[in-house]
Write a structure and sequence with these properties.
Blueprint: H1 2-9, H2 13-21, H3 25-43, H4 47-55, H5 72-100
C-alpha cells in the first residue's frame, strides 16, 4: 500500500515536502492530504480501525526465536556468517583480479592495442 501511494503521488512524502517548498502545488496538495489522513488515523475517524488492527496478534510460540530453529541459534548464525564471508571472498577476488591483471574484463583497462593514428 505504501509503494502504491508513492507511485500515485510520484514520490515519497520527504521528496514531496521538498518539492512543495520549491513551489510545486501538486506536491503541496499531496502533503496536505497526507497530513489530514495521518491525523485522522491517529485521532480521527480512522483511529478505531488502527487500534483494532494493531491489537490483532498471531501467537508463534517458540517458532519466533532463532533458538527454536533446527540446529539452534549457533547454526543459523554460523550460516549467516559463512554466507557473508563467501560474498566478501567473491567480491574481494574480483578486486584482486582487477589489480593484478590490468587487462581483466571490467577493470577499465584496454584489452587490445590501440589503433594506429593516421599520419598527418
Amino acid at each position: 500500500m505504501f509503494g502504491a501511494g508513492m507511485v500515485l503521488t510520484r514520490g515519497c512524502i520527504s521528496r514531496l515536502t521538498v518539492l512543495s517548498g520549491t513551489g510545486n502545488l501538486r506536491a503541496a496538495l499531496v502533503v496536505l492530504v497526507f497530513a489530514v489522513t495521518a491525523h485522522a488515523t491517529l485521532k480521527g475517524v480512522l483511529a478505531p480501525l488502527r487500534t483494532t488492527l494493531g491489537a490483532a496478534t498471531v501467537n508463534l510460540g517458540e517458532a519466533a526465536s532463532l533458538g527454536a530453529l533446527p540446529g539452534g541459534a549457533w547454526l543459523v548464525s554460523a550460516l549467516i556468517v559463512a554466507g557473508a564471508l563467501a560474498l566478501a571472498a567473491i567480491a574481494g577476488g574480483a578486486l584482486i583480479a582487477r589489480a593484478v591483471l590490468p587487462g581483466a574484463a571490467g577493470s577499465g583497462a584496454p584489452t587490445t592495442r590501440p589503433l594506429p593514428q593516421p599520419a598527418e
